[in-house]
Amino acid sequence: MNAFWDAAGGEIAHRVPARPGRMLAHQFRVVFPIVGLALVLAAWNLPAAAQSSDVYVCAGPNGVPEYRNGNAGKNCKKLSLPDVVTVPGGARPQANRGTGGAGTSASSTSFPRVDGATQKSRDGERRGVLEQELQSEEAKLSALRAEYNNGEPERQGNERNYQKYLDRTASLRDDIARSEANLASLRRELSNLKD
């Protein structure tokens, strides 16, 4: 398999032979956007021998330079490129499973606590915000249902084309379904709050 870089098109491609040692007349090309020759070689996850292979610049068809690895052929010059360096990722720290928490490594005594009065005021603020959102969503839903008019909304002046009317009707139906789902979610959040 030969890899080359088309300098005019700014892309890297593979040529896959039909049989070993032969190339197809109509070669199969998989095109990758060029990020950098070294990055692409590292991303291919080739064996170490193939990653450290030599890279050649060759005169391609129509005078467009091609970059190849391996068998260079005629009209090619070897390039001296820096080696690709890979750094293995560090190991993740083990979570302290003895705390009974959600995999946190902090002990239960060092975790900050909030007194009951502060938590009640926060819960009250949250309930107020959720109730306001619920009221505005209910108003939005009633306006959408009125405009939808049981699937037969009033035609607007810019809807001479019937398809525009059908598109707006479908959009209204989707908006109503989304608003109903939002209302159900807000009601569920309110029911989960402690009294």
Automatic annotation (TrEMBL):
Location of the region described as Disordered in the Swiss-Prot/TrEMBL record: 87-136
Ranges of biased composition (kind: Basic and acidic residues): 120-130
Protein name per Swiss-Prot or TrEMBL: DUF4124 domain-containing protein
Organism name: Cupriavidus pampae
